[in-house]
Design a protein that fits this description.
The chain has 98 residues and is α+β, with helices and mostly antiparallel strands. The chain has one domain. The chain is 22% helix and 45% strand. The strands form two sheets. A four-stranded antiparallel sheet has the order 1-2-3-4, sandwiched between helices. The radius of gyration is 15 Å and the shape is flat. The two termini are 26 Å apart. 10% of the residues are buried. The mean pLDDT is 76.
């Protein structure tokens, strides 16, 4: 399967009527490998979900995060948790195995 196939299967699985709406799909790189991100909304409070997929050495990695847009880390300035999560994923690097 390609990364697009995994993304399509994920989108089809989560888009049950009245449960979830996929709002955006983005292709980019994660750790230097082709990646796919799917943003979705769910629940009565319109919570945000973000799933990342990347294939490295024939292994699929999936990272997922959900929160409301009001969640943030205290500090000056405060950082929204979604921004912190996105920065974390963008910092991933794959290293050669043994």
């Amino acid at each position: 399967m390609t990364i697009a196939d995994y993304g399509k299967a994920f989108s089809e699985k989560i888009t049950e009527p009245g449960v979830v709406e996929v709002t955006r799909e983005m292709t980019h790189t994660i750790g230097g490998e082709p990646g796919l991100s799917i943003e979705y909304r769910f629940g009565g409070l319109n919570r945000l979900g973000l799933a990342h997929f990347v294939i490295h050495s024939d292994t699929l990695y999936r990272f997922e995060y959900t929160d409301s847009l009001e969640c943030y880390v205290m500090g000056k300035p405060p950082h929204y948790l979604l921004d912190v999560y996105s920065r974390l994923v963008n910092s991933f690097h794959f290293t050669p195995g043994p």
